[in-house]
Design brief:
Shape: globular
Largest sheet: 8 strands, mixed
Radius of gyration: 18 Å
Order of helices and strands: EEEHEHEHEHHHHHHEHEHH
């Protein structure tokens, strides 16, 4: 029997980070750890379906986290890769995890790379699902990258207003597992057409996320990543064949710089966890068994 319990991390600066841990009730002895990191304008429910279904839970603890500013880790101050990396390091210390496998989607994949850069001894491996490299961005992310100076100028006044108590009081909870089920039902009715307008809607994203956090997400996902040639841990990259947000060929060319990297391509627009959950899960499980269960 599996048990998932809700936990919190209280950071040194007073923020409260919400996360959940999957672990079998009868588990004994040492276990390895997966940390699942969500994407832009998302939250830990992105990984609820994976955590409930994966056979990795037989021998791995699975931690899924609401990054600061998202979901139940409500926060309206400064966030970014350095802040999220510090929170992740503190979470691993609290859980007494010496080294973890990081699985990240979109912004979460970029965060995984930054954490491996800053804390190489704390990372056993990486699974990067649709990483967002600035030179590969197209569509809305590409436009956001060109507007970075304007976005960066808007964020400090918004944070100041929030500090003064001027912000929206009501945010709508976002359950991505339920949204994904609705999306698959819609795809079944329309011959496989993905409801991209719902998943790429700024208006919908802002229903569940403070504006200042959303804009800082954009700055983070359109910013640089560390030099991939310095990331020495085994890495699996899962790329979609679509071009909604990134050019897959440019992304693959960048990923080729990883010393120990492997790329799998899945038939999806960008939302692999939504469009191809079983193929994604099998790819991660098979890769983990090959690299960590020898």
């Amino acid at each position: 029997m599996r048990v998932e319990d809700a936990r919190i991390l209280k950071t040194a600066d007073g923020a409260v980070i919400a996360y959940r841990r999957w672990r079998p009730a009868a588990s004994t002895g040492p276990r390895r750890t997966v940390v699942a990191l969500h994407g832009l304008a998302s939250n830990m429910t992105r990984w609820a379906e994976f955590a409930a279904a994966t056979r990795l839970a037989e021998s791995w603890d699975i931690l899924r986290i609401d990054l600061r500013g998202h979901g139940d880790s409500l926060y309206r101050g400064r966030v970014g890769m350095d802040v999220w990396c510090a929170d992740l390091a503190a979470l691993l210390r609290q859980e007494q995890v010496s080294s973890a496998l990081l699985v990240g989607h979109c912004l979460g994949a970029n965060l995984a790379l930054w954490f491996a850069h800053h804390e190489p001894t704390r990372v056993a491996g990486l699974v990067l699902i649709e990483p967002m490299f600035r030179q590969a961005l197209v569509g809305e992310p590409g436009r956001a990258a060109r507007l970075r100076p304007l976005i960066a100028a808007v964020v400090p006044p918004l944070r100041l207003l929030a500090a003064l108590g001027l912000y929206r009081r009501h945010l709508v909870p976002l359950d991505l597992m339920e949204l994904d089920r609705e999306a698959r039902a819609a795809m079944a009715r329309t011959g496989g057409k993905f409801p991209e307008a719902r998943y790429a809607s700024i208006r919908e994203d802002l229903r569940s996320l403070p504006l200042s956090i959303y804009l800082q997400d954009l700055l983070a996902v359109t910013g640089p990543v560390p030099g991939l040639s310095t990331i020495s841990v085994p890495t699996l990259a899962l790329l979609s064949q679509g071009t909604s947000f990134t050019d897959p060929e440019i992304t693959a060319r960048e990923l080729a710089l990883l010393p120990d990297g492997h790329i799998d391509r899945l038939n999806a627009r960008h939302w692999i966890p939504t469009e191809q959950p079983e193929a994604m899960r099998r790819a991660i499980e098979d890769w983990c068994e090959e690299h960590f269960d020898r």
